[in-house]
Amino acid sequence: MDKPLVYFLCTGNSCRSQMAEGFLKALGGDRFEVKSAGLEAHGLNPRAVQVMSEASVDISHHTSDVMDPEILNRATYVITLCGHADEHCPVISNPNATKWHWGFDDPAKATGTEEQIMARFRAVRDAMKERIERFVREGK
Fold first, then answer.
1. For residues 52 and 19, is the Cβ–Cβ distance under 8 A?
2. Is 5-138 CATH 3.30.450.20?
3. What local confidence, expressed as pLDDT, does residue 23 receive?
4. What gap in Å lies between CA 9 and CA 103, rounded to an integer?
5. Active-site annotation holder among 37, 78, 82, 124
6. Is 15 a catalytic residue?
């Protein structure tokens, strides 16, 4: 039987959707097929790679991809991670898809010292991990 497909969407597929994909693959990859994409492709953010590595999840091999309508329409769950993606997500023609919005601040927009910026990345990473653990545990 096919595993349910979870499609994480964000604006640029550089940080949040990449971290979400990495966590769900690590925590529930045996139960879910996991993909991520952006409305645009901004490239993989090196700080996202670093903070995920600190959490023992390697996303360094991920690519920044533009949303694929074919994948979107076969997804079981479409989860937007930023308001822009939520507002601009195309119509999903799959009547069986569940669409959720899990809003997380964009750590790439953090300002300040490198230490302060990395603290924002870690805070988003930790909140995201907690949300994905709940999804794996409860299916919602």
1. yes
2. no
3. 98
4. 11
5. 82
6. no
The residues of the chain scoring below 50 in pLDDT are: none
* Domain residue ranges of the chain, discontinuous segments joined by +: 5-138
Q: Which of 41, 89, 97, 136 is catalytic?
A: 89
pTM for the model stands at: 0.94
Q: What is the SS3 assignment for the chain?
A: CCCCEEEEEECCCCCHHHHHHHHHHHHHCCCCEEEEEECCCCCCCHHHHHHHHHCCCCCCCCCCCECCHHHHHHCCEEEECCHHHHHHCCCCCCCCCEEEECCCCCHHHCCCCHHHHHHHHHHHHHHHHHHHHHHHHHCC
Marked catalytic residue, from 5, 6, 9, 10: 10
Six-digit token pair at 79?
């989860």
